[in-house]
Amino acid sequence: MKRTIAILALAVFLLAALLPFSLSIKPVSAQEKGYTIQNVDHQVEVMYSGNVVIRDTVTVNGQIADGFLIGFPYKYGSYILKGVAFDSENVFPISLGVQLDERSGFYGAEVTFPEGSPQVFTVVFVLSNTLLTSFPEGFYLDFPAYPSFAMDAARCNVTLVVPPEASVIDVTKDDGAVASGKFVKDKLVAFAYFPANATISLTEGWIRQIDVPTLNRIVTLGASGEVTVSDNYRIVNNSTSQITSLKLDISVDALNIVARDEAGTPFKSEMLPASTSGLVSPVNLTLAGPLRNGQSIAVIVEYTLPGLTADQTRFAMNLELLTFFSYYVRQASITVVPPEGAHIVTPQLSSAIPSLTLGRELFQETLRIDREGLSYVDRDVPSEKALQVAYDYNPLWLSLRPAFWVWGLAAVGSIAVVFMRQRPKPAKPPKPQRIAVPKLTGGRLSPDQIKTFVEAYEEKIRISSEIKLLVARAQKGRIPRRQYKVQRRALELRTYSLSKTIVELKAMFRSAGGNYADLIRQLDSAEAELNRVEANMRSAEARRGTGELPLEEYKKSVADLQKRKEKAESTISGILLRLREETR
Length: 584
Prior knowledge:
- By secondary structure, the protein is of the alpha+beta class.
- It contains seven helices and 29 strands.
- The chain has helices at about 1-25, 30-35, 400-420, 445-475, 480-510, 515-545, 550-580; strands at about 35-45, 50-60, 70-75, 80-85, 90, 95-100, 105-110, 120-125, 130-135, 140-145, 150, 155-160, 165-175, 180-190, 195-200, 210-220, 225-235, 245-250, 255-260, 270, 280-290, 295-305, 310, 315-320, 330-335, 345, 355-360, 365-375, 385-390.
- The strands form six sheets. Strands 5-4-8-2-1-12-14 form a seven-stranded mixed beta sheet.
- Helix 5 (about 480-510) runs antiparallel to helix 6 (about 515-545) and helix 6 (about 515-545) packs antiparallel against helix 7 (about 550-580).
């Protein structure tokens, strides 16, 4: 009994001794941090691409000695694409994915101030567009109603920014629903955990849930200072509905705008009013076919900009680094291609930005800048928004390449003359015999005329195959170069003779009218389609060789082109078969 009393007495004594210390710990936490949060403007904005921009402008009283912690409920962490912190003059280091003061259930970011903290600064996060869910009249937006801090904030002003054509119907959150896109929270407690959902009314087309993995911009400078720009986008449909049109941003000074896909199919384009920033003019493109969920498309927009003026032999331009994009571009590159023979004077590689590279070949120099995560958010960050590019160019370079051709041809001719004198001349290929074309004697074609046409056309197809086989053998080194040239020349002469015969007979078929003229029209259409397919195949192979076209896209493109080629060849074979039956 005495032992129990002694233990209880000791416990009471320890509790009385430690109680003053425990009561003094919590009230001094704000003083230990050395600052208080007076106000925060919490702005949530939806881009054209459906990406969500959360912009928190924080006003503090005091100095932030350690890092400043800001975050959201943990579920939003997987949607964050980019974070940046800055004030009116500086950009501050920010670490994403940190723990919010050892509290679980939050996604945190830490901002550090190497040279002392400002009284007002901004932290911006860009989130993916999967936070949007579409419904027939608009979208549902899932977002954090307030930011989460490691200490209390006196006041938080919340604003939802949507397109002018949209309206916020209501916002539901745990501390009460509101029927507006603007509301205020006084005495925002530390570690606030308030997911919210907004209902946004908006007609179709003003927001497109798209992903833009890449944008390759090529700025080509002409010998007289002309500027041509080609923007090559890769765009993926992230929405559940089909997309039939897209809005892309280009410079307000752009002229002669042409848009197409990677196969050369043109898009109908319409210029829209300039953006509120005054920096870009949106262009609305009507796609050739609907873009379904998960599908991607390459969109190429070409246009010209005002030409550069020269100071004697030096040209200069301000290269736009941060275009006011209303969508989020994951990877972007800007390549400047001056005229052949030009020398880039500025920027120097040693003083340029880290992502800049200068390429130098024999007569060509290029400048390339790679950027990540581009959008209009970058326009607010105090950084270099344009790069001065200057190059020297002598107009005499215009005549250099023709001069090289003349000198090269003269040298090759001299060598050929010497070589021919030392070797016996090869036998000349037999002069191609012209096929006698039967004359048209009436309104109906004779069997001889039809037979002559079919045989000439089939022989032309056979010779084309022989030329392709001959070229393949020459490329593999299985035939001497001289023999290759002689044989190819003979085949080309024969092809020329057959082509003249076919052209004359086609005219007779058209004059005969009726079924014959219709068959020739079908034949001409199939030939044109075959020529387009072969040109597109060569273009796809060239782009694949330079790495511009991904392997999967290349395979898909080649498969589609092969189907079109087989269809055109089948049409030609069917027409020839019908004509041959006429002679029986």
